[in-house]
Design a protein that fits this description.
The chain is of the alpha+beta class and 143 residues long. 20% of the residues lie in helices and 41% in strands. The longest helix has 17 residues.
Amino acid sequence: MPSPFRHRPDLARLNAGAAGTAVANLGIEFTELGEDFLRATMPVDARTKQPYGLLHGGSSVLLAETLGSMAGNLCLDDQEKQQAVGLEINANHLRAVKEGLVTGTARAIHIGRNTQVWEIRVEDAQGRLVCVSRLTLAVVSHL
């Protein structure tokens, strides 16, 4: 399968674009843009934990939507006229994490003219599945 990405910015540019957003505030860092995936890490710390000391499910979902949305926008022919925005996301939280880093990887399931579907897998430092998410994006005229 050919790469779905039409744009391949360097990681420094992706990370710089997140400055001043929830992405930067939660410590999410893009780490790899492969042929068919985008990967990022997120710390499990006071910014991303729930009151019981575990990784907050909402933090995992924010990581998933960040990865899927960024990857989806890298697939657009004309980023000046179009934007891929979240339409629906679901997540299954499978394992608790108390500390360290989690790593999310987004891969396309479907890239269409009007919609995209992405699977995002979040794993702990030992490579164990923490959360699996599916994100549907709508491709719209630039907002």
